Amino acid sequence: MESHRHNVVLIGFMGTGKSTVGKFLAKQLNWSFTDTDAMIEQKEQMTIAEMFEARGEAYFRSLETKTIEELLAEEHQVLATGGGAVLAEKNRSCMLKNGFVVAFIASPEAIIRRVSSDQSRPLLQGNLDERVHSLLEQRKQAYDFAHMTIDTSELSPERIARIIMKRLKAIQLKAMP
Ligand SMILES: Nc1ncnc2c1ncn2[C@@H]1O[C@H](COP(=O)(O)OP(=O)(O)OP(=O)(O)O)[C@@H](O)[C@H]1O
Ligand SMILES: O=C(O)C1=C[C@@H](O)[C@@H](O)[C@H](O)C1
Ligand SMILES: [Mg+2]
């Protein structure tokens, strides 16, 4: 049996559904749910866009690492991470060591459709279509280190949560004390 700490870490590009599915999953597991983006915004009392503008991306990234490390020191957590959290090796090894890592992928079309109603993401400013394609290209392999990958383009959040639950049962992550 694989031996993961009892946490689930959702990774994936913006708009792949980490925050949406994470909530469902945590409810089903009766575990805590944290969206690291939302937690950082709350702590800093400003939006991520404002943070990028006022303090720079590096400031946000250091808070992101700290938040992930603190949360994964606990157990029975479902984490929805920011789309760029996987870029730092430190974050990747912390995730792999302390949780079952699930990568969400989606087609560029699904991503664009899902993020277009919320124009606040700082890395998607300008021509949305171009920005999504170029960032996806840059991050082509960034999510490959996960234990499990799900293409969320054509699946409902409920169905995705069920697929993850099934895998957790298979590896007995859910059943262990
Ligand atoms: N499986 C799905 N099917 C259809 N719509 C979805 C699905 N998952 C998420 N959405 C919708 O897509 C939008 C983005 O989803 P969500 O915020 O969960 O993505 P995210 O991966 O957390 O993005 P970010 O990294 O920017 O925080 C939301 O409006 C959500 O309702
Ligand atoms: O993909 C990214 O680099 C980001 C994704 C969002 O979740 C936020 O964490 C932030 O906007 C950066
Ligand atoms: Mg999110």
UniProtKB/TrEMBL annotation:
Major localisation: cytoplasm
The protein's Enzyme Commission number: 2.7.1.71
Known pathway: Metabolic intermediate biosynthesis; chorismate biosynthesis; chorismate from D-erythrose 4-phosphate and phosphoenolpyruvate: step 5/7
Cofactor annotation remark: Binds 1 Mg(2+) ion per subunit.
Binding locations of ATP: G15, T16, G17, K18, S19, T20, R121
Keyword Ribonucleoprotein part of the UniProt annotation: no
UniProt enzyme class: transferase
Keywords, comma-separated and alphabetical: Amino-acid biosynthesis, Aromatic amino acid biosynthesis, ATP-binding, Cytoplasm, Kinase, Magnesium, Metal-binding, Nucleotide-binding, Transferase
Cofactor: Mg(2+)
Residues binding Mg(2+): S19
Gene3D superfamilies tied to this protein: P-loop containing nucleotide triphosphate hydrolases (3.40.50.300)
SUPFAM superfamilies for the chain: P-loop containing nucleoside triphosphate hydrolases
Catalyzed chemical reaction(s): shikimate + ATP = 3-phosphoshikimate + ADP + H(+)
An example molecular function term from Gene Ontology annotations: shikimate kinase activity
Function, in words: Catalyzes the specific phosphorylation of the 3-hydroxyl group of shikimic acid using ATP as a cosubstrate.
Subunit structure and binding partners: Monomer.
Name by which UniProt lists this protein: Shikimate kinase
Organism: Paenibacillus eucommiae
